[in-house]
Amino acid sequence: MTTLPTSRIIDGKAFAEGLRRRVAEAAADFLSRSGRAPGLAVVLAGEDPASSVYVRNKAQQTVEAGMASFEHRLPAETGEAELLALVARLNADDAVDGILVQLPLPAHIDAQKVIEAIDPAKDVDGFHPENAGRLMTGLPALVPCTPLGCLMLIKSVQPALAGLEAVVVGRSNIVGKPMAQLLLSESCTVTVAHSKTRDLPAVCRRADILVAAVGRPQMVRGDWVKPGAIVIDVGINRIPAPERGEGKTRLVGDVAYDEAAQRAGAITPVPGGVGPMTIACLLRNTLAAAVARTGVVVDVPSA
Ligand SMILES: Nc1nc2c(c(=O)[nH]1)N[C@@H](CN(C=O)c1ccc(C(=O)N[C@@H](CCC(=O)O)C(=O)O)cc1)CN2
Ligand SMILES: [Mg+2]
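Above: query sequence and LMY7XDAE SMILES. Below: predicted holo structure tokens.
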């Protein structure tokens, strides 16, 4: 009987717990040295149920890490000017080190305008063009949480990345582009693939590190994976699961997990892979912003 190789499952939930513990220790040091805890303001406009859960989890994990949480929940009808005024107040508030505006915003609000209104020094999402430019030019920057979490997971299984072929599928400003920049900073040879890429399976098969961030359920098939590759699945897609009962759903990533796990050297599951790293890295970025704003020296975990 032949046995199929099994890949190492990268446990993002456990890694995120460890990261949050390290951030909590550093936050306690920050408090003892500065007399105040790092503070994170999270702004939610509207009642999107998933966003509401993410915001609640962010606030709860902020408090658990010994930081101050300032939650602002605004009605869906909130005007753009009102939201911009709140951002201006948070920019001016010394107790606030990090500002996060939960996305997506209601359609009548220009999200880019809101992102650009956030003080770049408090932009813990790393979405402000100043932080994007700093990342691109190799200057110290606040880096978007999801790709930062991906890099930490990749380095947890392969600390030395120089010279490896990395393929990022997806070119969003939030994940794909910053992920490519981070891998380039690690001296990987980086390809950014997307919906117009010709022969995407062949491009993916080149990858020693394959990051899927396209938002299409199970698009990356097992035979797209180079044997032994590290596969990072950023997708969170809810699909019907009639086998669980009528009307039931389940979460899947952008990678066909069962197939890919037959070939990958290491792979992140969904749920429990990249997702939990997003909030852990948000806490890490809040601590980093507090340190950069105040000059108080504590140990900020890095990738
Ligand atoms: N301003 C921002 N908005 C949004 C971001 C962001 O980073 N900044 N990211 C996403 C949502 N998000 C956090 O905001 C987020 C998504 C998923 C998870 C997570 O832990 N997922 C779990 C599964 C959860 C489930 O069961 O539904 C997992 O993958 O294991 C955390 C945070 C969009 N908006
Ligand atoms: Mg996941």
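The longest strand covers residues 39-45.
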